[in-house]
Design brief:
Length: 723
């Protein structure tokens, strides 16, 4: 059984520590397009060297290009991917659907692994990407061992899971808190980690702050450690085990890799050795406290850390000293053993042969060997010179010498022969693949304009409860989105141009059962379905004939994302809330897919499996949430006194922005871009009818009477670039 241990590298020192401590593969980033933009990362020359170094040790290298990309970035990203492809990188790690589509179009034999940022948490999500010929899918951190087993059993793609390191409180790829509160997007690799800051609970009924929980990082989770679950995960069919930590140092990397290396090796060898000492070393390098996460939650496992930054153990200096050598470029640990044979004949060039695996390297000297009665070369000197491999990744195993009596050769010549042979081997063993030269790619070559008729946008409306059906005025609202868990009988009589079922970004097993039971009813009532992740897209595509609309949680900010979804059967999409007006204009020009903008809504900043309210009642997330009296009682209050609505629904927690994202007042500017639908979400709106009237007036070219209150709304990123 092949099991892969994948380690992080955010610096040269951490890379060498990972490779020389037992990792089977290493993931790292270049200077652009990766989700750890604040790590040191690597330039092009470093990248070339690191790939060769790793390959010489039999270690694979995966490069992260796991941010969402805009049209103006696609060409540069493709050219960088081509550089990585030509230099033998083993695979890319990708989040953006459009970039995945581009790589599969222009670099079809370049392996792609799907990032955890793509929110794959079930077999349907895996199957979505299987159709794109991906090699591996990195599953969401929120899954149990049983859920992972089911996904592995029902799919044919290799699955990868995180086993150690920091935990995001939100589902990865579904967090917009840093983006909207600080202008730095986690989906763009620049998360400012506002979840690690202090918050307090604010009781909406009593209008009071819960003093016991003031100045506490209520969204900060403990770090993840899964050593006790590795055996179960292997038996569940998981192929790759991933360590988080590109922002951490070499001591952390070495200690954590060594811990899991021993556990995996024990399993494969069928032996059991004590790994407690290695576990303690790993935990000492960085900790916010540790949890088993969602793999096998227990009643005693509270996941909230209660602190923002991690702490190091008292013996950290000792550990750092222990791993110092492993963090150096040419560590003696795990050197490759090579054999030499040398032939020295008077009057002929010296011939040195290097043997490594199936490789035989032969080099010869520029000058001929000479004869000397007094200065002939001795065997011990030959061995001494050819053993000087300290600046390489090799060490001498065996040496065979054939020479004439009285033969003389200079030490410098022996040194040069050794250098020539090892350099050739290094280059040869650094190449795992025989790849062609590709690119360069030009913007004009990969984008094609679509001729479109000028049209007026229509209004779409997402309701959140049956009382809001009254806002579905067919004279103004053309498309209606209805949550899947409402009483759908009430929807049958609503007369609008189009009715769509609305599916959230995260579904539970119970949700899928409900959907399965009601598929026939959905097809009777609805024209289409709004899906918000790859899994639900695949589910409805395979099981119904409903039209497919891809919602805003697909994070669509480029043409190729729209193009990929259209080719898979989508009829329309909502722009990501991180797209700006220029991004939208470009996409509309280059795709024939119908488009929609979130025109007025309280943005969902986070969706999480955990419940922050659990700390109030010491709940361990194992009780019936529907009976909890806290589930929608509180707001979160930040250090600036800003309140965020928080609610618990269907065993998930949602946090919403304090003010609405709106284009009221500037809607005409967006209407001019040929966008098809303007969406109003009724969530937290006291009177959605007023908002509908205002937007309807503006898209008709009239001025609305709605007055926005200063500092009580946001334009988000619509008029600026998100970092």
């Amino acid at each position: 059984m092949k099991v892969e241990l994948l380690a992080p590298a955010g610096s040269l020192e951490s890379f060498y520590a990972a490779v020389n401590s037992g990792a089977d593969s290493v993931y790292l980033g270049g200077k652009l397009f990766n989700a750890r933009n604040y790590a040191r990362n690597f330039d092009d020359e470093e990248m070339k060297h690191l790939v060769k170094y790793a390959h010489n040790k039999g270690v694979k290298v995966y490069v992260t290009m796991n941010t969402i990309l805009k049209d103006i970035e696609i060409t540069d990203a493709l050219n960088y991917a081509a550089f990585l492809y030509e230099n033998d990188v083993d695979a890319l790690i990708v989040q953006d659907l459009g970039f995945l589509h581009s790589v599969k179009t222009y670099l079809p034999d370049f392996p792609v692994n799907i990032s955890t940022q793509a929110v794959v948490y079930d077999e349907y999500g895996v199957k979505f990407f299987e159709a794109q010929n991906v090699k591996k899918v990195i599953m969401a951190r929120e899954l149990s061992v049983q859920e992972l087993r089911e996904a592995a059993e029902n799919t044919g793609t290799d699955l990868e899971v995180f086993i150690h390191g920091a935990l995001c409180t939100s589902y990865s790829g579904q967090c917009y808190m840093s983006s909207f509160l600080g202008g730095r997007s986690g989906n763009r690799g620049k998360c400012a980690q506002p979840c690690r800051l202090s918050y307090s609970f604010y009781d909406k009924e009593s209008k009071a702050e819960i003093e016991d929980y003031s100045k506490v990082p209520l969204l900060s989770l403990k770090d993840f450690i899964a050593g006790e679950s590795i055996y179960e995960l292997i038996e569940a069919g998981i192929k790759t085990f991933k360590i988080e930590g590109r922002m951490k140092g070499p001591a952390y990397t070495a200690a954590v890799v060594e811990y899991y290396r021993q556990i995996i090796d024990n399993y494969l060898a069928g032996v059991k050795t004590d790994t407690e000492y290695l576990k303690e070393r790993a935990m000492a390098t960085f900790s916010r406290g540790y949890t088993n996460g969602y793999l096998k939650p227990s009643k005693d496992d509270g996941m909230y850390a209660g602190l923002s930054s991690g702490e190091k153990g008292e013996n950290i200096e000792e550990i750092e000293e222990e791993v110092k050598d492993k963090a150096k470029e040419y560590s003696k640990h795990r050197r490759n053993k090579i054999n030499f044979s040398i032939e020295l004949r008077i009057g002929r060039p010296a011939i040195l042969k290097l043997f490594y695996g199936n490789n035989i390297i032969e080099v010869e000297s520029k000058e001929a060997c000479e004869f000397s009665i007094r200065n002939f070369i001795r065997d011990e000197i030959i061995k001494d010179q050819l053993s000087k491999l300290g600046s390489t990744i090799y060490e001498l195993n065996e040496l065979k010498i054939e020479k004439d009596e009285g033969v003389f050769i200079r030490k410098s010549t022996l040194n040069q022969l050794r250098r020539d042979a090892t350099e050739i081997l290094y280059e040869k063993c650094g190449k795992f693949y025989d790849r062609r030269k590709v690119g360069p790619f030009a913007y004009k070559d990969i984008f094609a304009l679509k001729n479109k008729e000028r049209k007026h946008p229509k209004l779409s409306l997402k309701i959140n409860g049956p009382d809001e059906l009254k806002y579905a005025d067919k004279e103004k609202v053309s498309r209606l989105y209805v949550p899947y868990d409402l009483n759908l009988e009430e929807v049958k009589g609503i007369e609008v141009e189009e009715k769509y079922l609305w599916i959230p970004s995260i579904l539970t097993r119970a949700d899928y059962k409900l959907l399965e039971q009601n598929l026939k009813l959905y097809e009777e009532i609805f024209d289409g379905v709004c899906v918000n992740n790859p899994g639900s897209f695949y589910f409805f595509k395979e099981k119904t004939g409903l039209k497919l609309h891809c919602g805003q949680f697909f994070n669509i900010v480029n043409t190729f994302s729209a193009q990929m979804l259209m080719e898979k059967g989508a009829e329309s999409f909502t722009f990501s809330i991180e797209a700006n007006i220029r991004d939208m204009e470009s996409m509309v020009k280059h795709t024939s897919l119908k488009s929609e903008i979130a025109a007025h809504e309280y943005v969902q900043l986070m969706v999480m499996k955990n419940c922050p309210m659990s700390v109030l009642s010491n709940c361990k997330n194992l009780r019936d949430c529907e009976k909890c009296t806290y589930r929608d009682k509180f707001q979160l209050r930040d250090r600036k006194g800003v309140h965020f609505n928080i609610e618990r629904q269907n065993k998930l927690t949602y946090i919403y922005n304090s003010v609405p994202l709106t284009i009221i007042g500037i809607a005409a500017d967006f209407a001019d871009k040929n966008i098809d639908y303007f969406l109003v979400d009724t969530k937290y709106l006291e009177d959605a009818g007023v908002i509908i009237d205002a937007l309807y007036s503006e898209i008709k070219g009239l001025k609305s009477n709605y007055a926005l209150e200063e500092n009580k709304f946001t334009r988000g990123h619509y008029l600026k670039n998100v970092l």
